[in-house]
Amino acid sequence: MIKVMFVCLGNICRSPMAEFVLKDLVRKEHLSDEFYICSSATSNEEIGNGVHFGTIRKLSQMNVPVENRVAVKLKKEDYEKYDYIIGMEDYNVKNIIRIIGNDVDNKVYKLLDFSDNPRDIADPWYTGNFDKTYEDILEGCKCFLKKYCKSEI
Ligand code: 4NP
Question: How far is the centre of ligand 1, averaged over its atoms, from the C-alpha of 15 (Å)?
Answer without folding.
Answer: 10
